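Run Response regulator through structure prediction, thanks.
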Amino acid sequence: MLRCLVIDDERIAREGLLEFIKRFDYLHPVGDYANALDALPLIRNKEIDLLFLDIEMPGIKGIRFAELIVDMPVLVIFTTAYADYALSSYKGNTIDYLLKPIFLEDFEKAVSKARTWHERLFPRQAHPTCFLKKTASCIASPFGILCT
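Sure, done. The structure for Response regulator is below.
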């Protein structure tokens, strides 16, 4: 499951992206921010896998913010109304660039790409094998005792 965060200064854009995120079982919306710097602690604590980031915002611009988090394990999908930023946005952790208004079909392609990249870059840790030992009518396991 990809933990998602939306950063956009426009409330309606944040709400729309959160609605799209909720449509996919492998995406989990963690929250949304109007200001990128407010989200920095959440990203630094590695609580986010996928960031939907607007480019034109008051204060710090999305591209500059993406440069600040380039060494953090978070993938970025830029969301903007300005096509002229497309080329300069593909640096660092950028997976895709969605032009507003965002259509569900384009969103689905972008998050599918992000899911694939996330699985490649951050493979799941192997889970230890669990052996069960049957004792009388109970089964002991590392997770507790199951009795039948």
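Residues 98 and 139 are 52 Å apart (CA to CA).
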